[in-house]
Amino acid sequence: MCLPGLPRSIVSDRDTKFLSHFWRTLWGKVGTKLLFSTTCLPQTDGQTEVVNITLSSLLRAVIKKNIKTWEECLPHVEFAYNRDVHSTTKHSPFEVVYGFNPLTPLNLLPLPNISDFKHKDAHAKVEYVKRLHEQVKAQIAKNNEIYAKQANKNRKKVVLEPGDWVWVHMRKERFPKQRKSKLQPRGDGPFQVIERINNNAYKIDIPSEYGVSSSFNVADLTAFVAGDDFEHLRTNAFQEEGNDENPKIA
Prior knowledge:
The chain is α+β, with helices and mostly antiparallel strands. Helix content is 39%, strand content 14%. It has a 5-stranded antiparallel beta sheet with strand order 6-5-4-3-7.
């Protein structure tokens, strides 16, 4: 929803439009923080992923074969999404923000009973919205805890520091030249960690000849241990840790 005001942060990929000086300056002036996904790993923000998938499905259902009309249908899809009750919060996004759901054309006939409108008193309305937000926060926290428990069931936490040495998983979409054949190494290294961006992303001192960004998601890194078999790890390490498309964190 765009009506509540300017966003505190915007999650996007690393498209040239979003990395441009104009875009960064514009949002920097209004105090909005720009959050970029790690190169070739768009799974930075799960909530954004789910919303994009849902909106895409709604658009496909509405426009059908009239692909060029997607922009005209977008406001209707936005309204439907914001009025629908979400499984995590148990409320619609519109209700979470404003405290009530908007009327639809179906609500106009017959006209709604005046008694259906709740909280005429402003103070009561404020208290209602506060309680609603508390319920939503508690519900989101509960669901996040369940999702995190399931997602981290088979994962091991990896914390690296500047100066550490790591192996780098060479994903096919990020290293097309180095992964032309299935028989070529799946990883390379060791390379040194330059900077810890956060718990999920690090800057690696990878040679410029690779022609890729130095930022890597932790899922693509494996700690180097002295005495490791270099050729064995380059060829088989990531295959053993997990499949080539979604390796497990070691």
